[in-house]
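Provenance and format

Records in this collection were gathered into a single text stream. Each protein contributes a sequence line and a token line. The two records reproduced below are adjacent in the stream.
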Amino acid sequence: MEKRSYTGNRENRSPPATQSAYDDLGPSIKGTRQSDKKATQEAQKAQEAMRYWHSEITKTALLFESRWTLLALKRTDPAFADALRRGRNLFVEACVRGTHKQIHTQGAGVVRGFVAAANRMEQAGAPDDAYLVGQCPDTGTMIAIGVQAAQERVREVYGDKVAFFTADELAALCGRVEALRTVAEVKRKFPGAVVNAKSPAPEPPGGAFDYPPD
């Protein structure tokens, strides 16, 4: 009986089904890896763009806020104040879901917006409202209260005549200095109470006047 060979030519044998499947997946896996690499690079660029423009916007905003509040801008130029608000929102949206190019575009727009806002306030002659200045009529002591960004502006305008405080610093003084703590407690319990800014009238020579008995 003739024996049949089942070995055949190995070169002509079909590859296993699993091997064929892997070969078919080759281009797909390669494409996925390239896509992942591009996504990683884009994420890194977006992070760099966010760090850069957050810093630039903060610096420019502080220059504006050293003199004015956004509420003052709204009173002076409502349309521009609204445009600046929308620009800031677009920057936030770009940081959340945009590309690094979109972050650059919106970040640069916000910086230009704050510069333009400062120019508009100056042209309108808007007074500084980022701080308040008070003076003791008896001693001449002057203090300014405002956000930290306003400190340099206060020094520019008043020189060393004014001591600058933030609200937190005054709160700390009112909490730690006994006399101020008493004043703060009174004002807390009696809204509207004010500190008398004038010294009491001096007593006449010889002491207080005594009314004669009836």
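Adjacent record:
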Amino acid sequence: MSNKYYVLVYNPPWAGPVPREIVSAGGGFLKGFKLSSVDSNAKYILEVDEKAKKTLDYPPLDYFMSSDLVVFFSEKLKTVLNSIGVDNVDYYQVEVTYAPTNELIKYDLANVIGSLKSIDRDNSIFVEGRRRHIRSVEKMVLDESSFEKFKLFRCSEFPTLLIINDLVKEVLEENKITGMKIVDPSNWQVSMV
């Protein structure tokens, strides 16, 4: 049986929380390669928008991407992915504080290993930036010819996006993983990133 693939998009609620770096972990998290080093002193704070009437109505999510383009997985998300054999993610402990309660929350920085050419350039409509990275996509069609052995990987042309197979989609939805939107490429809208 052949897999169907979906796009995983960072999607926090309007008020967050969203991570802000106090000490950045460093770059390279969007490249899809093993990292030579990550700053072990990295610290982030999860902030809820001050316009939120009740900040505690916006609890920590399972998936985050910070403004310095570092990806965070909760312990729950990490466990769910490990349970189905996703083994191409390197994890690094990080200090994360949830600002509304000042509580330290257990997260790992997540470096997804594997970056594949994913966009079918002949059948998609997009705006291309430097180094053949795609800046925006109006119509998305995936080129699944090289995906078969992967459950989770990074889209090389649009590195903030993760591509997941139907098994990963199923377990993320079953476990009500928060902070992300799973999009069928045929339903892609340019406003999603």
